[in-house]
Write a structure and sequence with these properties.
- By secondary structure, the protein is of the alpha/beta class.
- It folds into 2 domains: 167 residues, Rossmann fold (3-Layer(aba) Sandwich); 121 residues, TPP-binding domain (Rossmann fold).
- It has 8 helices and 16 strands.
- Strands 9-8-7-10-6-1-4-5-11 form a 9-stranded mixed β-sheet. A 5-stranded parallel β-sheet has the order 13-12-14-15-16. It has a two-stranded antiparallel ribbon with strand order 2-3.
- Helix 2 crosses helix 3.
- The longest helix is centred in the N-terminal third of the chain and has 17 residues.
- It is elongated, with a radius of gyration of 21 Å.
- Bound molecules: flavin-adenine dinucleotide.
């Protein structure tokens, strides 16, 4: 078993996903604790250029037409052969649709342990996972021999996993990729929606704590006064109170506003991963232990309806 930490580089349509850089930064922190090297694992076709700014000691590159677009089938086959042969200490995947799909199947097929929702590693190499909707941080030894780990953002910024020094890229022999059972037919673009929340600089975001559809109107009023727009956590969209185009999170959009006002949102990992690049997060929640307060710069432990009404009054007066 080697001490190498592999990071499976997630990318889509010519762009490296931010989670890949976050994982490289986490892998670096882990190697500082337990030694070893950070190794990026890139799969694609004519995509070697994507390795250019990865902060890795080296990059292993699988190039094959069957890897031109992500399919779980092809990724699993390629990664299974590499992991079996090299037995790295850990393999990091994004806790994303892509990463969770591949990592879980590899865990079953290779009979390797999997750690999910890992946010960081301690100085002595323990994993720290954010579980139970973000309410509990669980710490443990990285299981042996090779730990498969799905990672969530929050601890590291994407910039920390980028480098001006291109890493050495080593081509890896691709195993037979015939008889794949899945192929990409095409991409289905999400509905354009009324506004693109990923481009807005002020977002008033409502969660289940808003309680009723009528109360969403109060948030709309506040957003209008502040020159922003309303977006929401998944339960609010699932209720049909706002369209899917306004959903923030793993199943919705990643946002980077200057101000993210989170009202009645608990701070589940699937929501938080999409707001970490916000300039400022202000959380309003009646529960002082809500995990959203861990990432908010400012917070108020107060009923959001009371506060919204007061805010509207004050802004109108001003
Ligand atoms: C695969 C997967 C994908 C997912 N994708 C997403 C996604 O894209 N986006 C997303 O948001 N979620 C997503 N989720 C769901 C996620 O796990 C959480 O369930 C969800 O984010 C919780 O939404 P919430 O914070 O609004 O509700 P809750 O967790 O119920 O929190 C409501 C909060 O409101 C507070 N509150 C209640 N009343 C008041 C009041 N009057 N004033 C102030 N505060 C109040 C409560 O204290 C609580 O903290 C996903 C889950 C899975 C499994």
């Amino acid at each position: 078993m080697s001490q190498e930490i592999y990071v499976v580089i997630e990318h889509l349509r010519g762009q490296v996903a931010d989670i890949s850089y976050v994982m490289l930064a986490a892998a670096r922190a882990l190697t500082q604790g337990i030694g070893g090297e950070v190794v990026g694992v890139l799969l694609g076709h004519n995509e070697q250029k994507l390795a250019g700014n990865l902060a890795a000691d080296q990059v292993l590159y699988f190039d094959h037409p069957a890897l031109a677009e992500f399919t779980s089938d092809a990724y699993q086959k390629a990664l299974a052969s590499l992991i079996k042969e090299k037995a790295p200490r850990a393999v990091l995947f994004g806790s994303t649709s892509i990463g969770a799909d591949v990592a879980s199947v590899l865990s079953a097929r290779l009979d390797l342990p999997i750690v999910t929702l890992c946010r960081s590693f301690s100085a002595d190499g323990k994993y720290v996972s954010q579980i139970c909707g973000g309410k509990i941080m669980a710490e443990g030894d990285l299981p042996e021999p090779t730990a498969l780990v799905t990672m969530i953002p929050g601890e590291f910024k994407p910039e920390e996993g980028q480098s001006d020094q291109p890493p050495n890229v080593t081509p890896v022999a691709v195993p037979a990729l015939e008889e794949l059972r899945v192929r990409l037919v095409g991409y289905v673009e999400p509905e354009a929606g009324d506004v693109d929340i990923s481009q807005e600089s002020i977002l008033i975001s409502v969660g289940r704590g808003v309680q009723t559809e009528d109360n969403v109107e109060l948030a709309e009023e506040l957003a209008e006064l502040l020159g922003g727009v309303v977006c929401a956590s998944r339960p609010v969209v699932d209720q049909g109170w706002l369209p899917t185009s306004r959903m923030v999170g793993k199943s919705g959009k990643t946002v980077k506003p200057k101000l993210y006002l989170a009202m009645g949102i608990s701070g589940a990992p699937e929501h938080v991963e999409a707001i970490t690049e916000s300039g400022m997060i202000i959380a309003i929640n009646t529960d002082p232990d809500a995990p959203i307060f861990d990432i908010a710069q400012y917070g108020a432990e107060v009923d959001l309806l009371d506060l919204t009404e007061v805010l509207i009054e004050l802004i109108e007066e001003a």
